[in-house]
Every structure is written in structure tokens, then in C-alpha cells.
Automatic annotation (TrEMBL):
Name of this protein: Gnk2-homologous domain-containing protein
Pfam families: Stress-antifung
The organism's taxonomic lineage, starting at the top: Eukaryota, Viridiplantae, Streptophyta, Embryophyta, Tracheophyta
PROSITE patterns: GNK2
Annotated source species: Linum trigynum
InterPro entries in the cross-refs: GNK2, GNK2_sf
Domain Gnk2-homologous: 1-94
Length: 94
């Protein structure tokens, strides 16, 4: 389970890093944070796109990250409002 949790915590960072490299900085900032020890016995984290960043890239990131994280049976949710998209994800060891 531990290797899975590690991949789970790092996945969104990798996805966002790719978007950061391809998104003009003047359009906005894509920020990702993972907290491997944020939840006792599990993992939690979030990825958010601030106003101005390409909306389609935000949606693509949420979709790609969710697909990748699903292999760890994550509980994932995403929201999109006024050019801002945020994804929260978490997994608890059983």
C-alpha cells in the first residue's frame, strides 16, 4: 500500500509540473501541493488553478489526475467556477 500512496501523493505534482512548463506565466499560475502526512493513516492534497490560466488546461489536469489516482482507489472531487478549478483528493488506509 505504501508505494501506492507515494505515487498517489506525487501524481498531481507531476501533472501540474507539465502544465506549468507549457502554460505562459502571464496567463496564470498552476499550484500543486501534496501532504503525505496530512491525514492520519492516509494522504490528502489539492491542486488549484488561479484565475487567468487556460480553462481547458485546468479541466484536462483534473481529468488526467483523477484517472491516474483512481488506481489507488482515491476519493477525488473537482470543481470548476469562474475560470478557477480545484481538485481535492484523499485516501485513507484501512
Amino acid at each position: 500500500m505504501a508505494p501506492c500512496l507515494n505515487r498517489y501523493a506525487l501524481c498531481i505534482d507531476e501533472v501540474v509540473a507539465g502544465l506549468w512548463d507549457t502554460t505562459p506565466k502571464k496567463e496564470g499560475l498552476f499550484d500543486s501541493k501534496s501532504y503525505p502526512k496530512g491525514v492520519i493513516g492516509g494522504v490528502t492534497g489539492s491542486a488549484s488553478c488561479v484565475p487567468g490560466t487556460n480553462v481547458e488546461n485546468c479541466k484536462k489536469c483534473l481529468s488526467t489526475a483523477k484517472t491516474s489516482l483512481d488506481e489507488c482507489k482515491s476519493v477525488t472531487s473537482g470543481s470548476f467556477t469562474n475560470d478557477v478549478c480545484t481538485m481535492w483528493y484523499g485516501q485513507t488506509l484501512k
